Amino acid sequence: MAEDQPSLLQKFVQDELPQELRDLVSNLPMENGWAEKHLYQYQGFWYNPFILQALVTLQKHFHANDNDIFLVSIPKSGTTWLKALAFSIVNRSKYPNFQNHPLINNNPHALVPFLEFDLNSSNEFLPNFNSLSRSSSLFSSSPRIISTHFPYVSLPNSVKESSCKIVYLCRDPKDILISRWHFTNKLRKGITDNFSLEDAFEMFCKGVSPGGPFWDHMLGYWNEGMKSSNNKKIMFLKYEEIKMNPLLVLKELAEFLGFPFSREEEAVGVMDDILKLCSFDNLSNLEVNTNGKTSFGVENNIFFRRGQVGDWKNYLTTEMVEKLNNIIANKLTEHGIQF
Ligand code: A3P
């Protein structure tokens, strides 16, 4: 990407919508956006219009393979971390040397593409999705590891109908809010005003955030995973669980993905090596992640901030915590999702 070209995400913030997108969103409910000018509601969830266009196209044309692995998350749940872990697990026979591993020179988003960002060649979001086939070069590995932030209800039918595996990652919504608020202001920097935490908080609590409402996003995958027909298809993970018990989660994740660790691998510390390679401290300090950019034009370093559980304590007032905790209790804890 040429230096003077705005990044795709800068375009989200700056540009008037092309006619095609104006037609697409013309009858949809609209609210003010976070990094984007406006969010639009489609099938119950709030979208940036460019991502919505990708979704509608993918719903028509995307073909899932039975051995695909989908890493699904609500944004700011630790997608970058999950991508690194899953890539290392699945590809460890191909890349057994962790000193000279693709993650050393590539941001996890370059190794595990986003369905909604990377499945187009022009970076213009007006892609020729006819080429969206099983042979697309970005998606030619086997199994393909693909990530998305789409909610369950809106996944392309072939994802729901295939025997692919879905790993769903979520996180304490209070930390998601703080992480998303910082992320939004990094995207807005130099382009538009700062987004206040108070505004972010109010919108988040109303469910109006990219991919929101967060509770419906989480519940969609949680409820599907509870169905006996899906309990081998959907694995539900929480950021806090990985932090608390990384070895156990890594082991369970590898088993779920069909790449279990052997006794020999356990004995020689392969799991520890993967955790170290994918750790916040290691990844965030690599040259590629301090200076590089993603295919969709944002700096790799904005995916690494603090990487901790409970940073919300440094930002939210007592009243904010009480309000958000009530929403979490009513919308999630009631159904069995606890943080
Ligand atoms: P914070 O903003 O709380 O630090 P996503 O990858 O879904 O965009 O989520 C980004 C969040 O995950 C950020 O949280 C980021 O710091 C954290 N993160 C990124 N890589 C991580 C890693 N390897 N281990 C733990 N947390 C990580």
From TrEMBL:
Residue ranges occupied by any Sulfotransferase domain in the UniProt entry: 66-334
Annotated keywords: Transferase
Main EC class the enzyme belongs to: transferase
Superkingdom of the organism of origin: Eukaryota
SUPFAM superfamilies: P-loop containing nucleoside triphosphate hydrolases
Listed EC numbers: 2.8.2.-
Keyword Transferase assigned: yes
GO MF assignments: sulfotransferase activity
Family statement: Belongs to the sulfotransferase 1 family.
Protein name: Sulfotransferase
